[in-house]
């Protein structure tokens, strides 16, 4: 066989080379044919026309080109290629387009020259014309967005300049950690969202409604009707009622649903043990000698000068010359010096003690291997020293016994952690922006976000935390020091079954039924209010009268327009609207409410959020008058705030694929959840 190969070697090479050449030429042809056939796959119809996958892929490429030009353009581009394609279709139907001048203006604002554009196009394997065409499509979409939403038209170049300025304003965000970072991030996204949506066109009725809602105020006195009143002789909720309530809210976090905050999704939670060192115990060990106090007085006499009253200085057009006051005698300031020095010594001693406790806890962990992620590898049989033993060692060394909370089997969520005595209001020593709840939430087992800077502290179950100090230490020498260990951590999840949360679901079902009964009893309470005052009714109900602060109908929150916080009730738009409707009705009859009898100013108003009836008497109503209205119109960014109010009332995103499909007549042939995966270029 080998002889045969050697004999026909040249012949085999010639034939083989030819076959390889043919294969080389045929393979791209097969690939193109396969790709062409794949691209011809229909994904839907638009006014009877077939829409193919290739058309959606072209939209995806246009989106990619836009994002490659400049990061700021990513903020304005849709994140769904099908949405891009349908928006382009509706823009064409409305006759919206973009000019070459607008494209050049945008490139100029972004600082992209023709040479840079050509270089980018070459790198991406396209032409400059392709990139400019994609930019023209994006600009047309922005013009079209303004038309559809009714926003005041603003050139994209100007909008990009504003967005860039906002990012620059928040440029130091990377230096902020914990809850403060989350707050700033929400503010940043809110401002970017406002710029994306543009300034809405505001009508006179919209302005008047906004001003009335935000600047009219009402003040009431009220008495709650206890829900327990309607729970007597109540038949327990059926299994079907409990199951229905559970199914409705099993995927919802507690306190987040509207209107009553029901939710049975178990939030991120942990089990903790911790050690806390109260400062009053440390201060008892801190000593300052008389000689040290005198030495401090001699070295810091400027701190003890008597201030010169401003009235004793002669009036003059020249800058006043500050005359140094007389130094107070040591005997006058001795107690103050001793107290300050004792606090300072106690603070230093507390730092030493908690760092010593931290070092003792780390002894067991130092031999654990460190993984590539920076976290330690903890074996199943790892048994660190107990906090009780550490506390005893501290007592032997420093004469101070810290408090220890261990063997605590409670699951704690973020709110629970913030409510812990002492520890809940502490921060990481040396990193005062990292608060205790945020630090715990960064534990490895809860899979914190990759961009959360708190993860750099590498907290994990079973290992000691970094030392903590009371937040009050930021402004004084009170509070204490502490550290903790996470014993277990569990990510947010649905209950394994109804049984896991059945007690809470049953209690909520009882509240719902009690509130239904209370609503059916409203007329009886209204009749009662015509005869008796709140002062008579309140003791019968075992309640006291609550006098609220003046509140408006709406207020501007961090992320949205919301109802104000009302004593006893919380934030409940339905309740607040009921109060204002009653107040406006009364004002039409008699602008001076004090001239109306208390029974005429009283009503029964329910709170769906609190699931409680309230007997309410309106004591004061201050509507916005004409002069107030004119003054409010001069407020900066009023139009944006008005737009935020009414945008929040939209039931659906007008640029969602579903909304776009209905308007342009698009019928999909692919499941919506598959459309992005299928359209990947």
Model regions low in confidence, pLDDT < 50 over at least 5 residues: 1-35, 473-477, 647-651, 672-681
DSSP E strands, number: 15
- Assign an overall shape: globular
Oligomer type:
single chain
Mean pLDDT: 80
Summarize the structure.
This protein has 26 helices and 15 strands. The protein has 681 residues and is α+β, with helices and mostly antiparallel strands.
List keywords for this structure.
681 residues; alpha+beta; 4-stranded antiparallel β-sheet; 15 strands; 12% strand; disordered N terminus
Describe the model:
- By secondary structure, the protein is an alpha+beta fold.
- A 6-stranded antiparallel β-sheet has the order 5-4-9-8-6-7. A 4-stranded antiparallel β-sheet has the order 10-3-14-13, sandwiched between helices.
- The longest helix is centred in the middle third of the chain and has 33 residues, at 330-362.
- The chain is 48% helix and 12% strand.
- The chain contains 26 helices and 15 strands.
């Amino acid at each position: 066989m080998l002889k045969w190969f050697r004999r026909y070697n040249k012949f085999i090479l010639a034939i083989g080379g030819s076959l390889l050449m043919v294969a080389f030429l045929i393979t791209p042809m097969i690939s193109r044919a396969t790709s062409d056939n794949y691209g011809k796959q229909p994904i839907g119809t638009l006014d009877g026309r077939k829409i193919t996958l290739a058309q959606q892929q072209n939209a995806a490429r246009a989106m990619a080109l836009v994002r490659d030009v400049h990061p700021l353009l990513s903020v304005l581009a849709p994140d769904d290629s099908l949405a891009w394609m349908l928006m382009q279709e509706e823009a064409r139907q409305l006759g919206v387009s973009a000019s070459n001048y607008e494209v050049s203006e945008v490139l100029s604002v972004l600082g992209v020259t023709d040479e840079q554009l050509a270089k980018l196009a070459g790198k991406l394997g396209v032409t400059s014309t392709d990139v400019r065409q994609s930019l023209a499509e994006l600009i047309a979409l922005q013009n079209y967005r303004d038309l559809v939403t009714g926003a005041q038209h603003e050139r994209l170049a100007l909008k990009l300049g504003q967005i860039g300025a906002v990012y620059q304003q928040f440029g130091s965000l990377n230096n902020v950690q914990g809850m403060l970072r989350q707050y700033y991030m929400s503010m940043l996204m809110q401002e970017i969202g406002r710029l994306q949506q543009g300034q809405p066109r505001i009508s006179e009725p919209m302005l008047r409604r906004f001003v009335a809602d935000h600047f009219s105020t009402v003040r009431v006195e009220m008495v709650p009707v206890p829900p327990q009143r309607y729970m007597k002789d109540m038949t327990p909720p059926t299994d079907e009622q409990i199951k229905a309530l559970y199914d409705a809210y099993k995927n919802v976090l507690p306190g987040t649903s509207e209107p009553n905050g029901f939710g049975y999704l178990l939030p991120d939670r942990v089990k903790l043990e911790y050690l806390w060192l109260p400062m009053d115990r440390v201060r008892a060990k801190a000593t300052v000698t008389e000689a040290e106090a005198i030495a401090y007085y001699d070295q810091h006499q400027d701190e003890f000068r008597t201030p010169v009253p401003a009235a004793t200085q002669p009036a003059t057009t020249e800058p006043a010359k500050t005359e140094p006051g007389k130094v107070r005698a040591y005997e006058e300031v001795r107690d103050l010096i001793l107290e300050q020095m004792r606090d300072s010594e106690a603070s230093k001693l507390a730092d030493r003690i908690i760092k010593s406790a931290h070092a003792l806890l780390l002894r067991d962990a130092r031999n654990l291997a460190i993984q590539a992620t920076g976290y330690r590898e903890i074996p199943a049989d790892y048994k660190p020293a107990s906090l009780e033993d550490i506390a005893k060692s501290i007592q032997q060394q420093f004469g101070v016994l810290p408090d220890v909370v261990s063997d605590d089997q409670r699951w704690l969520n973020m709110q629970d952690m913030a409510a812990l005595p002492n520890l809940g209001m502490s921060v990481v020593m040396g990193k005062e922006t990292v608060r205790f709840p945020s630090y715990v939430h960064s534990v490895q087992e809860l899979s914190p976000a990759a961009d959360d800077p708190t993860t750099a502290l590498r907290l994990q179950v079973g290992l000691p935390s970094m030392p903590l100090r009371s937040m009050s230490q930021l402004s004084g020498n009170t509070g204490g020091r502490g550290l903790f260990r996470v014993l277990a951590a569990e990510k947010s999840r649905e209950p394994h079954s109804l049984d896991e949360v059945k007690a809470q679901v049953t209690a909520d079902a009882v509240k719902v039924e009690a509130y239904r009964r209370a609503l059916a009893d409203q007329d009886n309470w209204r009749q009662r209010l015509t005869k008796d005052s709140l002062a008579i009714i309140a003791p019968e109900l075992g309640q006291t009268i609550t006098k609220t602060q003046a509140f408006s109908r709406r207020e501007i929150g961090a992320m949205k327009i919301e109802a104000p916080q009302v004593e006893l009730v919380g934030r409940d738009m339905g309740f607040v609207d009921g109060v204002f409707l009653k107040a406006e009705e009364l004002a039409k009859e008699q602008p001076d409410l004090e001239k109306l009898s208390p029974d005429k100013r009283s009503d029964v108003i329910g709170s769906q959020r609190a699931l409680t009836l309230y007997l309410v008497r309106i004591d004061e109503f201050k509507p916005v008058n004409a002069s107030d209205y004119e003054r409010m119109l001069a407020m900066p960014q009023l139009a944006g705030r008005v737009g935020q109010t009414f945008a929040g009332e939209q039931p659906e995103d007008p640029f969602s694929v579903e909304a776009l499909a209905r308007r342009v007549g698009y019928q999909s042939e692919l499941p919506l959840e598959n459309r992005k995966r299928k359209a990947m270029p």
